[in-house]
Design goal:
Length: 158
């Protein structure tokens, strides 16, 4: 799994799903084509940001039976850490990930290693770039006299 491959999965999965939901809502609400396209793009980028947030939370959760660790899901933070194969912490992470990821103690250690290696910061930067792109779509919608205040409150001011 590469960054590019995982990004494609996130785009097709979360991005496309959120984009479709926004597009259906825009069309159902009688939106003009430009508004429908901007809302579709908004949903796409927001969906990606939400998926990355979910991936980070899932990695930090040590809930019994949580599948991401057990299944060895290679999300952005994991892929980032696995690239540090010359760094002792990166080597330790890779060893734990490949051989002991189903053990809670190993998961706790791997979370610490992900923090130390900057893997969560890396994923958050990608997430924030997607959120910012979604926000820019709302700004453009305002220029087309679309009221985005409800979306802004819901999404950006929880």
């Amino acid at each position: 799994m590469t960054f590019r491959h995982y990004a494609r999965i996130v785009n097709l999965k979360a991005g496309s799903l959120a984009a479709a939901a926004c597009r259906v809502g825009a069309i159902g609400g009688g939106g003009k084509p430009i508004a429908c396209n901007l809302l579709t793009s908004f949903g796409f980028h927001l969906g990606i940001a939400l998926q990355i947030e979910n991936d980070i939370r899932s990695l930090k959760s040590l809930a019994a039976g949580k599948g991401d660790w057990r299944e060895g899901k290679r999300t952005f933070p994991i892929l980032f850490a696995l690239r540090y194969n010359e760094n002792p912490r990166g080597q330790r992470f890779a060893h734990l990930f490949e051989s002991q990821r189903d053990r809670v103690a190993a998961q706790e250690e791997m979370i610490g290693l992900l923090e130390e290696l900057g893997a969560f910061r890396f994923a958050r930067r990608i997430q924030q770039a997607e959120v910012e792109t979604a926000r820019r779509r709302l700004v453009r919608l305002k220029k087309h006299t679309v009221d985005t205040s409800g979306l802004e409150r819901l999404i950006f001011h929880p």
